[in-house]
UniProtKB/TrEMBL annotation:
The keyword Cytoplasm does not apply. Its cofactor is Mg(2+). This is isopentenyl-diphosphate Delta-isomerase. CDD domains: NUDIX_IPP_Isomerase. The lineage of its organism: Eukaryota, Fungi, Fungi incertae sedis, Mucoromycota, Glomeromycotina.
Amino acid sequence: MGPRSDNVNLDEYDDEQVRLMQEMCIIVNEKDEKIGADTKKNCHLMENINKGLLHRAFSVFLFNSENKLLLQQRASEKITFPDLWTNTCCSHPLNTPLELEEEAQIGVRRAAQRKLEHELGIKPEKVPLDDFVFLTRIHYLAPSDGLWGEHEVDYILFIRGDITFDDIAVNKNEVKAAEFLSMEELNQKFNNPGDWKYTPWFKLICENFLFKWWKKLDDLESSKDVSTVHKLGF
């Protein structure tokens, strides 16, 4: 992999989103082995992605007591994939001791708990670390526009809980809207999207896994594939 570009001017973007671009992501190889760290900014520039830069991420799917899935629409301020609908929460564990810890995916679980509160205001006690179910990992690459994109090994985490809109306080800098949908409602929207446009990783997960997992929410053990990194969309 050649030198990483970091000469992009961020003046046109939202100040808070620019600040978050300085967070340090975990750089991995295709086996999800840590090989370094770099800024969120560098990790999301297509120039670097095209040279092979790959980082660790997670996607949370939060279901309420009625087995409805909480979806979010990403804020217009987001630098990558603004205004698109996606699963409950998508982000990255950071290159910090707490979120680097790999035993039982505890670092990724901590990151998921942190970001659920940051983006949606869901308190950690409503989403205990032990309640996250790690199903599998996907490796995908997706351009956002000519400049930005994603290239991730993405941990898929399911969690069920008695979550209502009373537990949610949306961070408008991160999330434009949030909705609980049943499997039937999402399947209908996914096949007839209308005004709804979806993130690439959410589309890949829907097309390959989500609905068959959703049918087995009472028996997620049978859906687990913890050793595989599924390469999707290449």
